[in-house]
């Protein structure tokens, strides 16, 4: 269930049965000559929507830009300063907390993001079943950035 497709009365009703929300967070950065610049935001968003659908948990709008200063040499990459990302995450969490959300699960798509709040974070590429599939399909061709698995996922 995507927050962006809800009305406020629907969110109010949701808060009667759950106070958890999934927050996808990613990056806008180059992924080599064939990977989408949105890879690090698209992957966690799709995974969050799948998890949210299966568990009936609300999914917040994706934070599409993260800390990617090391990619700014490539056209199309964008980056937030660490202080800006901290402020963005803090403001979003405080906004949702004001209405009763008290459990935040961040699905992160970018290794450069270091969430500045005490939240549960899972990198989608470190999920055991994802590693098993990547090992089986890509073997030693899998890497650290612009990997075959994330490019294939997008
Ligand atoms: Zn990536």
Q: What's the gist of this structure?
A:
The chain is of the alpha/beta class and about 150 residues long.
Label this structure with key terms.
alpha/beta; 154 residues; binds zinc ion; 40% helix; 5 helices
Strand order of the largest sheet: 2-1-3-4
Listing every helix as H and every strand as E from the N terminus to the C terminus, the arrangement reads HEHEHEEHH
Compute the number of strand runs. Answer: 4
Tell me roughly what share of residues is in helical segments: 25-40%
Mean pLDDT: 92
* Count of individual domains: 1
Biggest sheet, in brief? 4 strands, parallel
CATH superfamily: Creatininase
- The CATH level-2 architecture is identified as 3-Layer(aba) Sandwich
Tell me the distance between the termini. 21 Å
Number of helices: 5
Which overall shape is indicated by the principal axes computed on the Cα atoms?
Answer: globular
Low-confidence stretches: none
Strand content: 5-15%
What do you see in this structure?
With 154 residues, this protein is α/β, with parallel strands linked by helices. It has one domain: Creatininase (Rossmann fold, 3-Layer(aba) Sandwich), CATH 3.40.50. 40% of the residues lie in helices and 12% in strands. It is built from 5 helices and 4 strands. It has helices at residues 8-17, 39-55, 82-98, 128-138, 148-153; strands spanning 20-25, 58-59, 103-108, 120-123. It has a 4-stranded parallel β-sheet with strand order 2-1-3-4, with helices on one face. Strand 1 (20-25), helix 2 (39-55) and strand 2 (58-59) form a beta-alpha-beta unit. The protein is globular and about 45 Å long. The mean pLDDT is 92. The protein binds zinc ion. Residues 31, 39-40, 145, 150 line the site of zinc ion (ZN). Zinc ion binds at residues 31, 39-40, 145, 150.
